[in-house]
Each structure stands twice: as structure tokens, then as C-alpha cells.
Design a protein that fits this description.
There is one protein chain. The protein is α+β, with helices and mostly antiparallel strands. Helix content is 33%, strand content 25%. The chain has six domains: 125 residues, Rossmann fold (3-Layer(aba) Sandwich); 154 residues, Topoisomerase I, domain 2 (Orthogonal Bundle); 132 residues, Distorted Sandwich (Topoisomerase I, domain 3), CATH 2.70.20; 126 residues, Orthogonal Bundle (Topoisomerase I, domain 4), CATH 1.10.290; 70 residues, no CATH class; 88 residues, no CATH class. It has 19 helices and 35 strands. A hairpin with a 2-residue loop joins strand 10 and strand 11. The chain is globular and about 90 Å long.
Length: 746
């Protein structure tokens, strides 16, 4: 029997495949990328056709050795990394590693992790798609060039460690420009006038002023509203027209990546990162008991296509017929059109097996998995159901042949797809009020039972939510399905944005970075230009462009611009400083506001001769319940150049300072200390026991008072990685607690 090696990205997927494939197959997980550009240098030969200088990543050398070892034993090697551009690049790197062995290497696309899907993927395995590899390589190099060339400008003008991403910076620009629109917005007053009318009070209904003298009603102020109210009060309202029609509301197509993220944010209040992590788990396989083992419950979750396989359409039609009856089943399958700009590489996101409804697998899923799976299930089933039917009525009323009022109503006749999937109103629009209208005919006269003028003010454009930003990015052609979540995560982790009432607001740092980037690289960090670059990458994948040509066309003008801006660094840095009325207590020179890693601070203009710095506004953040160990005065938390610290409230008489405690007890046995935040010699934050040097326990990651569920170690630490997202990790046994999401970062 031939021996086969299957190389995948995730160890979770390995478990599922092992059950389906059985003996004769060895499965190795790469844990993501195994080869990438170096971290410490540009790693791209810009003079030699942009040749990338790839290297094996730290921490992946053992995996590379294992792949080589197992490849020697195998007759066939299947490259089964994720079926997208990034997965194709990983597959290509694995192929290069095993190339010297001269084995039979095949690319297997696993669009769904089911027994049928895996079998079909291996049977149909073929050649690597080098055009897709080239497109991903071009994206990686583009992002590296932008990041490595522009980020240092931010380091020298704001502070070291900031980043400028090719796509993330455009998203930041959109958020900042929306904030500017809100700040510049001037509210305009307007009034609405509602009338309560009817043939009798019991059957009265509300109609709104719609026209004045045949023109659209526009009531600007209270004086006008009062005059109109007086003119119609006590007057008869005559029915001019009654229109009745039947309206149909059609279901929406099954989810693609962007619409899944938008709906999960709005309905489930899950961040895009959390949504994609949960979807990955559902795709790779969930253990459904001993009898079934791990099963991939949904198709691949990074897609921009609404296309659905024929066998899946037949299966869902049978499900609808048996669960809801033939009245909910259309005569034929509904075929949705994928937009022209889509890559259309994969199906829409749907359940892989229709005999696994949410209620059947509920016991095996986590809360997030169940909620997301139910959402995907309902949307897919609803997409193949008949439309909902409503009776719509519009009544126009006339008063004094001058004022026209209108009432509308929509009464459900047949729920159709709404039986399964209830639509949400757009988050930035008001829902239409549904009222019940009595049977009336033209010429009927109605009595007035009340006139209600009401003042309103126009509202500024709303701040973006994660959902509406993803929608805007997609509409503008910025990013691709695999990038939306990472864009938002990067903006949050770089502290360029905050979330206020679930809406994205730029931080002071974000506004500063955006001002520099737009002011000096406005054409690069531009919606239109970024969308054009995405189209160029698509053309590389389609074989219509050469990746080197695309990079060359981009780099020549870009490098000239970077050089020109580099000469202005001192001027840009000065522009970010603000003059103050304060003087230096040591040398008497004026002090200015500068940027540092922990925000803005006061610095002496005599630097470097005078290095005096002070926190802004004295740096008092909050009071504490601790007393100074020197003079017993209350301690307060201040913010200095190197972060937060506790200081005596009697400063400068008492200059005692202490590190800020996390409130987490030191995990060392019999130690009575607490974990406190400190700074290393190079300015990097770490956490150690307050009883140092008597106790030397320390960790680089922020400790959380949460016992490890695997080994009961008394604390865990916060981590944020590309593979697992935000989670807790045990420093003792390495166990990851993926259900956790840090509230402050959500």
C-alpha cells in the first residue's frame, strides 16, 4: 500500500483528517507559515527584480525537520493548506522544502472537511497554482516595502514602534475622515407634523404631513409648524387616494466572509477576529461524539462568492420541504449572482451536511460555535426559501386643498423565508413604524383627534462600527476576505482606534499618525489607489500581469516619495509638538508637548542639554487605597515617560515611587508579593513579583487572575497571536484558554 503524507496548516484539521483517512496517511501541521521574510531587515532585493529573501521562521525548524523526515517515507505528498492565496504560498514553500527528494507532490484543495469533501480533494489533487502564489508574494512584498520604508518615518517623528500598513492606514484614514465630518457637522432644525385621524376615535390612525401646496413638506422652525398645526386643527381630512399592492421580500444570498462578519457583529456582538476564529474551528472540525468523531461543519470561510454546489442545493431543498412544507419551497433552486470583482474561488459559506442541524449538534459546540453555526445554517436555508409576502396600503389625505398627509401600512400575509431568518434593519437607519389602517375609500371624510408638531435636528454621519467599516472596505474594493479581520485587529492593537458604544473612534495617536501619512503620502494611502492595487493583484492571479512588473511600477515613484519625505523628518517632528505656557523647573526654558510610547508628555526645549520631562496635567490618573511607605500619605497613579507608576501625593516633598500592581498574587509558593508592571533597561514592559529581589518570578506577558483549567497554576497570561487571536496562556504548562477575550480589547 502506498504511503501518503498530507501537510495541512492546523493541528485541529489534522485530527479531523486522521479519522477520515485512516492507515496509510501521515498528517503534519505547519502551524501557519513556516517560511517568511526576515523580521530584522527588508528581505527584498529591490535592485534584483524584488527577489524575496525567505527564511525558515524561528520556532518552525522542528516542523520543517518533521516534514522532511515524513516526506522521505512517503510515496505521495499532498499539500492541503487552506484553499486561498496564503494557503497556496504555504503549499509552495512546503513543495520547495521537499523538492530535493523528488517525490510525487500534489496540491489538494479541501473546501469542506467532510469525508466526501476530503476524498474528492485528494482524488482531484493537481498542480500548484503559481499565479496564485505570485499574487500572494506580490502582496507580501508590497506590504513589506510600505511597512519598512514608511514606519521608520513615524518612529523618528512620533515614537519608535509605530507601524504604517498599506491597507490598515487607509482604513484608519476612513475612520479619521468620518470623525472630521462629525466634528464639522452643523445640525439643521426641522419639524414633522402628525395628525391622529379616523371616522371614529376607536379606529383612528396617524398620518404625517407629506406635501404643502403640491411640494414636498419642509417645515424649518416652530413658527412654521405652529401655523400649519393651527391651519389643520379641527378641519376635515378627506381621503384622496387609497393604494393597495402586494409586495414581496426576497431572501438574501448565503454568507460570504464580509457579510458573515457584519451579521455576527450586529446580531451576536462578536468581533470580526472572534468570528473568524470561531468559523475556522467549525471549518476544521468539531468532535461530535465517539460515533462520529471530528466533523467539519461549514465550508471554507474566506470567500467572496455566493455560488453554491448543485448537490448542496438539492440537499437544502429536501430539508426545507420536510421541515417547513412545500409552500416554503420555490419551484426551482435560487441562483445568486456573484459580483464581477469577486475572485469566485470558493463556494459561499454554508453547512457542509444538512443532517447536522444546530439542535442536533448543540451539545458538542461551545457557545460561540453554536451561535455562529446557527446563524450560518439559518441564512443558508432561508436563501433557498420563497419570498415573504406583505399587503402594503398607502392612504393620502387632503386638508383645505393645501396640506396633504400620508399614512402607510404593511401587513404580513405569508412569512416565507422569514420563518427561518429574520432580517435586521440597517444599524444606521430608523425602523419604519408599522401601523394598522382601517378600510377606507376615496372621498371618505375623517375627523381630526389631535395634531402633534415635533422638533427634530439632522444628525451627523454615524461613526463606523466594525460591521459598517467592513461593508465600506468591501464596497470600495479595499482588502480581501482574508484581510478584514486583521485590519481591525491591527488598528486596535496599535492603539490607533478605540471602541466607544461599539463604534470605532480614532485615538489621539491615530489622528496624529493619520495626519502625517495623509499629509505626506496622501496618494498612496488613498481609497482609490488601494483598490487599484487590489485589482492589480487579482490580475496577477488571472495571469494578465507579471508580479515583478506590478512591483516595479509601484516602487519607482514610491521610493522617490519616501526619500523626499525623509528629508523633512525634523520639520514633521516639530509639527507634532505643541507649545505650552509651562517653563522647565530646572533651566527655565519653555516646555513643549511631545509624543512618547505611553502618550504625550511635557519636555524641556533645552534637550539634550536639559532632559527634564513631566507628565501632562501632573500625570494623576487615579487615587489608590495604598499609603506611602515613607511618609504614610496616600499614593496616586501617575503617568510618566516610561508608563504608569505609583507616586506619593506629597511630591515633591516626598519622592517615593512604586511600580503599579496588577492585583494578581505572585504564583510562587509561600510568596506574599503581587505581580507589578515594570520596565526593562530597553524600555520593554514586563511583570515581576513586588518582593524582588527576594522573589525573582517574572513574565513578559500581562498576568490575569485565572487559574489554568489544565494544571491549576494560579495565574494565566494575556496573549494575542495570529493563529489563536486573543486568548489566555498558562506560563506553566502552555495550555491555551481560547474562550477568553479581554474585555478592554473587544
Amino acid at each position: 500500500m502506498a504511503k501518503s503524507l498530507v501537510v495541512v496548516e492546523s493541528p485541529t484539521k489534522s485530527k479531523t483528517l486522521a479519522r477520515y483517512l485512516g492507515r496509510g496517511y501521515t498528517i503534519v501541521a505547519t502551524m501557519g507559515h513556516i517560511i517568511d521574510l526576515p523580521k530584522s531587515k527588508l528581505g527584498v532585493d529591490v535592485e534584483g527584480d524584488f527577489e524575496p529573501q525567505y527564511q525558515v521562521l524561528d520556532g518552525r525548524k522542528k516542523i520543517v525537520a518533521e516534514i522532511k523526515k515524513e516526506a522521505k517515507k512517503a510515496d505521495i505528498i499532498y499539500l492541503a493548506s487552506d484553499p486561498d492565496r496564503e494557503g497556496e504560498a504555504i503549499a509552495n514553500h512546503v513543495a520547495q522544502i521537499v523538492a530535493p527528494l523528488k517525490k510525487d507532490v500534489r496540491r489538494a484543495l479541501l473546501n469542506e472537511i467532510t469525508k466526501t469533501g476530503v476524498k474528492a480533494g485528494l482524488e482531484q489533487a493537481g498542480e500548484l497554482d503559481m499565479r496564485k502564489v505570485d499574487a500572494q508574494q506580490a502582496r507580501r512584498i508590497l506590504d513589506r516595502l510600505v511597512g519598512y520604508k514608511i514606519s521608520p518615518i513615524l518612529w523618528s517623528t512620533v515614537y519608535r514602534g509605530l507601524s504604517a500598513g498599506r491597507v490598515q492606514s487607509v482604513a484608519l484614514r476612513m475612520i479619521c475622515e468620518r470623525e472630521a465630518e462629525i466634528a464639522a457637522f452643523v445640525a439643521r432644525e426641522y419639524w414633522t407634523i402628525d395628525a391622529l385621524v379616523g371616522q371614529d376615535k376607536k379606529h383612528s390612525f396617524t398620518a404625517r404631513l407629506n406635501q404643502i401646496g403640491g411640494e414636498k413638506a419642509e417645515v424649518a422652525n416652530e413658527t412654521e409648524a405652529t401655523a400649519i398645526a393651527r391651519a389643520v386643527t379641527g378641519r376635515p381630512f378627506t381621503v384622496l387616494d387609497v393604494k393597495k399592492e402586494q409586495k414581496r421580500r426576497w431572501p438574501q444570498p448565503p454568507y460570504i466572509t464580509s457579510t458573515l462578519q457584519q451579521d455576527a457583529i450586529r446580531r451576536l456582538h462578536m468581533t470580526s477576529q472572534r468570528t473568524m476564529r470561531t468559523a475556522q474551528e467549525l471549518y476544521e472540525g468539531v468532535e461530535l461524539g465517539k460515533s462520529e468523531g471530528p466533523v467539519g461543519l461549514i465550508t471554507y470561510m474566506r470567500t467572496d462568492s455566493v455560488r453554491t454546489a448543485g448537490e448542496a442545493l438539492e440537499a437544502v431543498r429536501q430539508t426545507i420541504d420536510s421541515a417547513y412544507g412545500s409552500s416554503y419551497l420555490p419551484d426551482r433552486s435560487i441562483i445568486y449572482k456573484t459580483k464581477k470583482s469577486a475572485q469566485d474561488a470558493h463556494e459561499a459559506i454554508r453547512p457542509t451536511l444538512l443532517d447536522h442541524p444546530p439542535e442536533k449538534v448543540k451539545a458538542y459546540l461551545s457557545r460561540d460555535q453554536l451561535r455562529l453555526y446557527t446563524l450560518i445554517w439559518n441564512r443558508f436555508v432561508a436563501s433557498q426559501m420563497v419570498p415573504a409576502v406583505f399587503d402594503a396600503t398607502t392612504i393620502d389625505l387632503d386638508v383645505e386643498k393645501q396640506y396633504r398627509f400620508r399614512a402607510t401600512a404593511q401587513v404580513p400575509v405569508f412569512d416565507g423565508f422569514l420563518k427561518v431568518y429574520q432580517e435586521l434593519e440597517d444599524e444606521d437607519t430608523e425602523s419604519e413604524k408599522i401601523i394598522k389602517l382601517p378600510p377606507l375609500a376615496a372621498g371618505d371624510e375623517l375627523k381630526e383627534y389631535g395634531i402633534k408638531p415635533e422638533q427634530h435636528f439632522t444628525k451627523p454621519p454615524p461613526r463606523y462600527t466594525e460591521a459598517s467599516l467592513i461593508k465600506a472596505l468591501e464596497q470600495n474594493g479595499i482588502g480581501r476576505p482574508s484581510t478584514y479581520s486583521q485590519i481591525l485587529t491591527t488598528l486596535r492593537s496599535r492603539k490607533y482606534t478605540d471602541t466607544l458604544e461599539r463604534r470605532l473612534t480614532p485615538t489621539e495617536l491615530g489622528l496624529t499618525v493619520n495626519r502625517i501619512l495623509v499629509g505626506h503620502f496622501g496618494e498612496l494611502f488613498n481609497v482609490k489607489f488601494t483598490a487599484q492595487m487590489e485589482e492589480e493583484l487579482d490580475l496577477i492571479e488571472e495571469g494578465e500581469e507579471k508580479w515583478v512588473d506590478v512591483l516595479r511600477d509601484f516602487y519607482e515613484p514610491f521610493s522617490e516619495q519616501v526619500a523626499a519625505v525623509g528629508e523633512l523628518k525634523e520639520k514633521i517632528k516639530e509639527e507634532q509638538q505643541e507649545e505650552t505656557d509651562e517653563t522647565c523647573e530646572n533651566c527655565g526654558l519653555p516646555m513643549v508637548i511631545k509624543w512618547g510610547r505611553n502618550g504625550r508628555f511635557l519636555a524641556c526645549t533645552g534637550y539634550p542639554e536639559c532632559k527634564t520631562t513631566k507628565p501632562l496635567n501632573g500625570g494623576v490618573v487615579e487615587e489608590t487605597d495604598k499609603n506611602c511607605p515613607t511618609c504614610s500619605a496616600p499614593m496616586v497613579i501617575r503617568t510618566g515617560r516610561y508608563g504608569k507608576f505609583m507616586a506619593c501625593s506629597k511630591y515633591p516633598e516626598c519622592k517615593t515611587t512604586l511600580p503599579v500592581t496588577t492585583g494578581v498574587p505572585c504564583p510562587e509558593p509561600k510568596c506574599t508579593g503581587e505581580m507589578v508592571e515594570r520596565r526593562s533597561r530597553r524600555g520593554k514592559t514586563f511583570f515581576s513579583c513586588s518582593r524582588y529581589p527576594d522573589c525573582k518570578y517574572a513574565t513578559w506577558d500581562k498576568p490575569v487572575l485565572h487559574a489554568c483549567p489544565a494544571c491549576s497554576f494560579p495565574l494565566m497570561t494575556e496573549k494575542n497571536t495570529k493563529t489563536h487571536g486573543e486568548h489566555l496562556r498558562c506560563p506553566a504548562c502552555g495550555h491555551r484558554h481560547l474562550e477568553h477575550e479581554v474585555a478592554a480589547k473587544a
